[in-house]
Specification:
single chain, 281 residues, TIM Barrel, two-stranded antiparallel sheet, binds 6-hydroxymethylpterin-diphosphate
Length: 281
């Protein structure tokens, strides 16, 4: 799919136009242990204030997450995840029309989050929970299918691929077909190669270069490279010092054709994406 093509992404009755303007998904982690902003927004009032700020800074989507997926992260119970995320989603829904996504691998959490007002389910396990597809098919929510090799606990233990780009592409194609069998419409789906999820630095770089092979699947592609550890390793930077590297990755991904960027630094990423869009169009 060439750069500049419009794709419609159906998210609970809303037709979201993906491309040519880059859509920004701002990260709101209501977790004590996320790798770069863990603990900052555990207080629901602070989380809601940050969510509204994410929108004021120009994001199209607020991605609310209640379970860290950093390498080695310990899983949390559905109840705990709901206690962290649902009050925040309800309050945000009452105060903004921006799209809200729930970053969860659990169908139970996704279902309650959509009932509370979320428009999108961001599933880093791409439907590992057998009940997840039904949440999307029954509610019409948008669905992000992300590639991960292994689980967060084990994924960085020597990840291997024959050819990372074609392996990830084939996985995403298979997951789309599986979702369709469960009644999820292709128009509800966005795809994500899962930067940092069971990948070496070389795998991440290959996937960023290989974005055109993923956009060729005909659905919007999302990239989450923001502050990730491959940027830290390649540039020798701690998470707070990864803004320049994150913006470089975002701009590169944009120029390779992605429609959606998942970012921590919303204001700076919106500026970068806006200028790239103006120069390109
Ligand atoms: N990355 C993280 C979490 N969710 N979802 C998608 N679709 N794509 C990603 O690349 C992605 C994601 C990890 O980043 P973060 O939320 O900042 O950290 P943590 O998982 O530690 O909360």
């Amino acid at each position: 799919m060439s750069v500049g093509t419009h794709i419609i992404w159906n998210c609970r009755g809303r037709a979201v136009v993906c491309g040519p303007r880059t859509l920004i998904m701002g990260i709101l982690n209501v977790t004590p242990d996320s790798f770069s902003d863990g603990g900052e927004f555990v207080d629901p009032e602070k989380a809601v204030a940050r969510g509204l700020e994410i929108v004021a800074e120009g994001a199209d989507i607020i991605d609310v997450g209640g379970e860290s997926t950093r390498p080695g992260a310990a899983p949390v119970s559905p109840l705990e995840e709901m206690e962290r995320t649902i009050p925040v989603i309800e309050k945000l829904r009452a105060q903004t029309d921006a799209l809200i996504s729930i970053d969860t691998q659990k169908a139970e959490v996704a279902r309650v989050a959509v009932a509370a007002g979320a428009d999108i389910v961001n599933d880093v396990s791409a439907l590992a929970d057998p009940d997840m597809a039904a949440v999307a098919s029954e509610t019409g929510a948008g669905l992000v299918l992300m590639h991960m090799q292994g689980t967060p606990e084990t994924m960085q233990n020597d990840p291997r691929y024959d050819d990372v780009v074609s392996n990830v592409r084939n996985f995403l194609e298979e997951r789309m077909a599986f979702a369709a069998e469960q009644g999820v419409l292709p128009k509800q789906i966005a795809l994500d190669p899962g930067i940092g999820f069971g990948k070496t630095d070389e795998h991440n770089l290959a996937l960023l270069r290989g974005i055109p092979e993923l956009t060729a699947l005909g659905r919007p592609v999302l990239i989450g490279a923001s502050r990730k550890s491959f940027i830290g390793r390649l540039l020798e930077r701690i998470p707070e010092e990864r803004l320049a590297g994150s913006l470089a990755a975002a701009v590169f991904a944009k120029l390779r054709g992605v429609q959606l960027l998942r970012v921590h630094d919303v204001k700076e990423s919106c500026d970068a994406a806006k200028l790239v869009d103006m120069m390109r169009n």
